[in-house]
Amino acid sequence: MMNILLSKTEQDLLFLLEELTKHHDWIEIPDLAKKLNFSIEELQEHLFKLEQLFPNLLLQSSKKGIQLQFDFQNALDPRTAIFKQSETYSFLNQLFFKEGQSLEQICQALVISCERVQEIIQHLNTKLPQHYGISIQPSPLVMEGEEEDIRAFYIDYFSQSYSFLDWPFPSISEESLTNLIQLFLNAQQVSPNLSSLRQIKYTLAINLERFNKRHLIENPTPLLTSHYSSLMQIPQFEENIKKIAKKLHFEPKKETLEQIFSNPVKSPQITNNPSNGALGNIHHIQKSYRLLSQILEELAKEFHLQIENREELIWLLHYTAQSDFFHLLSNQSLDRQKSQILSSYQVEFPKLFEVSQHKFQSYLNEMGLENHPSKLQELVYTFSIQGQRILVQLLQKLPKIRVLIISHLDSHHAQNLIDTLTHYGNNLYLFDSWEESTISFSILNQIPHDIVITTFPVTNSPKPLIYNRNFSTSELFHHLHLLASQIHKERLTKS
Fold it and tell me: pTM of the full predicted structure?
């Protein structure tokens, strides 16, 4: 969604950088230009701009095309990289923190010409009303629209334009805000993951900034504060809030906490029924438990799985399907990442994912939740990721890759290779050495091994073969792993 706010050039650079980061090998210039719908000249211009914007970008060119090399300790996130360089995003940042400035003041602060700032405002005012129902008033510079819509926009903006560990709110203590949130989470026995907690922190920081500027939500939808009265009965709870509120510079009154903990993400389901969650009608819970228990039993039987955390997983699945707490906090970026994770696993375990998707869809239909397609992804994600050792069990059931080492030097050399390679791939491989005094193509064709490693070149080998040209052990294992991964993938597809 945030891409639409970028200029045409910035969007082009983002698409180019995203495409380059997808590949770990060479891409031919004509193929890349065609894929991105650029002319060769446009592509060359954009590549030059990328190198100007990011001097540390390791772009290599050769006859093979172009390749982006990575420093895996500090991998580049294309989106945040482009966003940080964007004049549009610099303007939005300034607008959020320094609301009410004149055009001249914001131009001076950004060191951008006023003509360019006016162009940015004009561009934003063609996109924001359509997607968020808000707009920018130029004099003085303020965001106009429903307060919920403005806050929802800024949640998207900050969540997607900053890297995961960034904290873009200098006037708010991240530690104190985290402590405040944790106080409410612990009291309600809710344990969010890192992404959900980040989303809550960003939501509350935006709410606090807007509240301090006297922008109020008329009927706030509660986030963590729906049981306010009960929470205040917990010993020390109110006292702890007061201590944290002092550090965050707000008065801990009920009305203030409701504003700070308001959830600007509109959801008719939640709005109409704020208490909707994992608790509720006992018959509804029993039905959900029975169906999920049956699904896990069927999946365990079909794929010969031992589901070690069965009870815990049932309740996790139930909560995922029935509660909208985390669903409200989801954002496009997080959903996209989960989808990518599932897609990669789906390639490796196609049958498991096909069957589990079908069963969880039936569950949603039975529970009257068929109109919530995002919940299907969440259920499959919860099952495959939070089910202890489910995927690894499928891997363990596959036969190990059999590798034959043939050394023309001596058997001790072959055994030495086996010992060192075993160190790297203990759970995946079974190694043998060739002890016979003769070897031929027909013998190679008949051996039961999946891969052969030789110390001499072999042309037109009937088996996948690696010629060990004085590779280091790690290099040799790398080549072995590439071949084995392909064999493994084929076996998983069939299983």
Answer: 0.65
Element (H, E) at 240: helix 237-248
In whole angstroms, give the CA distance from residue 316 to residue 385.
11
Average the pLDDT over 256-261 and give the result. 90
Q: Is the dihedral of CA 137, 154, 329, 187 positive or negative?
A: negative
Convert the pLDDT of each residue in 120-136 to its tens digit.
999 999 999 988 899 99
Angle at 228 between CA 316 and CA 157, to 5 degrees: 65
pLDDT tens figures, 8-61: 888 899 888 888 877 767 888 888 898 889 999 999 898 888 888 887 777 777
How many percent of the chain have pLDDT more than 70?
89
CATH number for the domain whose boundaries are 2-78: 1.10.10.10
Secondary structure (3-state) at 429: strand
- Decide the pairing of beta strands 135-138 and 141-144: antiparallel
- Six-digit token string for 362: 């039936």
Domain 398-494: state its class: alpha beta
Given a contact cutoff of 8 angstroms between Cβ atoms, the answer to whether 226 and 274 are in contact is yes
C-alpha–C-alpha distance, residues 8 and 2, integer Å: 13
Q: Where exactly are the structural domains of the chain?
A: 2-78, 86-145, 174-266, 282-395, 398-494
CATH value of 86-145 in 2.60.40, 1.10.10, 1.10.3470, 2.30.40: 1.10.10
- Please give the angle made by the CA atoms of 400, 406 and 408, to the nearest 5 degrees: 170
Q: Is the peptide bond before 274 cis (omega within 30 degrees of 0)?
A: no
Cβ neighbours for 396, distance < 8 A, ≥ 6 positions apart? 427
Tallying the residues shown for the chain, one arrives at: 495
Q: Has residue 247 got a pLDDT over 80?
A: yes
The SS3 of residue 371 is coil
Examine the pLDDT at 279 and tell me if it is beyond 70.
no
The domains spanning 86-145 and 398-494 adopt the same CATH topology? no
Say how far apart CA 171 and CA 177 lie, in whole Å: 11
pLDDT at 280 over 60: no
Residue 305 has pLDDT above 60, yes or no: yes
